[in-house]
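To the wet lab folks,

You asked to see what we're planning to order before we commit. Fair enough. Below is the target structure as tokens, and below that is the sequence we designed to fit it. If anything looks off to you, flag it before the synthesis order goes out.
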């Protein structure tokens, strides 16, 4: 069993996972760029039954370009997004990979919204690609 720990910047909101991710992906949509302050967002999805959440969070619900709703949970003290729940996948919890602060975390296998990818971002050919 692989256990990983993710947290916000101040450590008040934490997540512990007890399984391998179901999916690891990068998203180039404009909303992920704004949320992360980076050129893309990277997230890992886990079965919610394998995720333990500790601490208080505030929520914000966003409707994605696809029309699906996503409930983001962030720390009320430091503002870091620590996990989110996509409505279309109620049994999964998505966690931004950066919240793990682990350089050995597995690489993403999927790249989405590539039509909005920054031209300087190189995505490996062997990944699954979606516009």
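Sequence we intend to order:
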């Amino acid at each position: 069993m692989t256990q990983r720990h993710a947290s916000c910047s101040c450590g008040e909101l934490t997540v512990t996972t007890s399984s391998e991710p179901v999916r690891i992906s990068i998203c180039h949509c404009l909303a992920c760029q704004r949320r992360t302050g980076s050129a893309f967002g990277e997230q890992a999805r886990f079965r919610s039954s394998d995720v333990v959440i500790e601490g208080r969070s505030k929520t914000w619900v966003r409707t994605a370009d696809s029309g699906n709703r996503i409930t983001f949970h962030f720390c009320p003290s430091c503002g870091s997004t620590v996990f989110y729940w996509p409505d279309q996948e109620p049994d999964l919890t998505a966690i931004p990979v950066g919240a793990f602060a682990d350089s050995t975390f597995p690489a993403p296998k999927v790249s989405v919204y590539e039509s909005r990818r920054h031209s300087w971002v190189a995505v490996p050919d062997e990944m699954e690609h979606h516009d």
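Structural context that might help your review: The chain has one domain: 4-129. Residues 4-129 form a domain with the glutathione-dependent formaldehyde- activating enzyme (gfa) fold (CATH 3.90.1590.10).

Thanks,
Computational group
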